[in-house]
Amino acid sequence: MILDARGRRCPLPVLDLARHIYDIEIGATITVEADDPAARPDIAAWCRLRRHDFVGEITAADGTPGFVVRRSH
Amino acid sequence: MATYLDAAAGAPLHPVARTALLAALDDGWADPARLYGAARRARLLLDAARESVAADLGARPDEISFAANATQARHAAVLGALAGNRRSPGLVHSAVEHSAVLHAAARHVEQGGHATAIPVDRFARVDVEAFVATATAPGVAAAALQAANHEVGTTQPVSDVAAALGRVPLVVDATQTVGHADLPAGWSVLAADARTWGGPTLGVLGVRTGTRWRSPYPEDEGESGRIPGTPDLPAIVAAAASLRAVEVTRAADAARHHTLIDRIRAAVATIPDVEVLGDPDDRLPHLVTFSCLYVDGESLLGALDRRGFAVSSGSSCTSSTLEPSHVLVAMGALTSGNLRVSLHHATADADVDGFLAVLPGAVAEIRAALGAAGL
């Protein structure tokens, strides 16, 4: 699943992720495409707080960073 | 009037500073470099203030200069240490230095130098061995390590680093430490901020005798050639008086502040999805930072302002660049809903109790507005 959080400012990209993490199966991944500079540290911190896996960062076709999270429970 | 809990940005003027400032405006307006009666009185005031500040910082009077503000002191400290060691192009600094130190480092890089940022742990503390290994490599002109972090309060291992640095001068930004905690041993170049001890806007630059430091400014006789221009004598007199007053009561104030911050850390940790940051024990006595999930810092500052509390935030939405605090990022901490609470000489226990009484409601209000309840 890919979430488009372009133009959405902190803490909205993290809220988008929290709203949709249980829409995917355990072990599946969700990618949050976000251009807010706080998204990188805050998505990683959210994964720590909610005990999901922060898989890493990719780059979308338009250059926007995408943060990949695996649902772990 | 709002309860002011942002002392790290500048404490309210200490009553002693106010009295000294008003007296010096009358008595110390002349240029102390001149050779007439009013100028000689100004020179006596300046000399006495310098001796007083030097004594409180454990320095010699000729090692202490006054700058317009803390930012200028930090710039002069870093760029002067580099200029004094021009044959080596390298600067080594922690990743969590104040932005004024990082901006000086960036200027050094723009002009052809190198700068290396040493990463920090989750408390924002550098590792002594990692810092020293990089700072003692060939080609390093100077190292910069803050006495304690200005956002999260964690103290840095300055004296251990200094002992291992050898000939490399150590620039210590002590702006949140002076007036609140013991200054660590081992600095070669020092920056301090009178606003943090209840003085007016004034920076202090310390350069230890024998340190190779060269003014980064155009030639000028001001402050023994270290800071250009005529010094702000009334501000200097007031800052010296305030530092002396704060030092007299510092042990008791620091113990009281340490306990109040412990109380804040414990109370805030009971709010759901809040991370209290920085070292819980080895830290400045008077400040604490925490981050709240599903909260934006700007709204939280506003909600607290409406409730009568003035605090600060390192969240991206509260900065002019919309970037989150580089300190929080370097620690790997949550940056949303970030608040820094810092106490000063006049902070009462009831001020902290009042803040803790309204904080959970302010956080809950913002989470409800964002539809974050239950996530």
Can you describe what's shown?
The complex is a heterodimer of chains A (73) and B (375). Chain A is built from two helices and four strands. In chain A, strand 3 and strand 4 (65-70) form a beta hairpin. The mean pLDDT of chain A is 96. In chain A, strands 1-2-4-3 form a four-stranded mixed sheet, with helices on one face. Chain A is of the alpha+beta class and 73 residues long. Chain B is an alpha/beta fold and 375 residues long. Chain B folds into two domains: 3-9 and 250-369, Aspartate Aminotransferase, domain 1, CATH 3.90.1150.10; 15-244, Type I PLP-dependent aspartate aminotransferase-like (Major domain) (Aspartate Aminotransferase, domain 2), CATH 3.40.640. Chain B has twelve helices and twelve strands. Chain B has a seven-stranded mixed sheet with strand order 2-8-7-6-5-3-4, with helices on both faces. Chain B has a three-stranded antiparallel sheet with strand order 9-10-12. In chain B, strands 1-11 form a two-stranded parallel ribbon. In chain B, helix 2 runs parallel beside helix 8, helix 9 runs parallel beside helix 12 (349-369) and helix 10 (297-306) packs across helix 12. The chains are: A alpha+beta (73), B alpha/beta (375). At the A-B interface, helix 1 and helix 2 of A face loops of B.
How do the helices and strands line up, and which of them pair or pack?
The complex is a heterodimer of chains A (73) and B (375).
Chain A: E1 2-4, H1 12-20, E2 29-33, H2 39-50, E3 53-59, E4 65-70
Parallel strand pairs in A: 1-2
Antiparallel strand pairs in A: 2-4, 3-4
Chain B: E1 3-4, H1 15-27, H2 37-57, E2 64-67, H3 70-83, E3 90-94, H4 99-110, E4 114-118, H5 128-135, E5 140-144, H6 158-164, E6 170-173, E7 189-193, E8 203-207, H7 222-225, H8 233-248, H9 250-268, E9 274-277, E10 287-292, H10 297-306, E11 309-310, H11 326-331, E12 338-342, H12 349-369
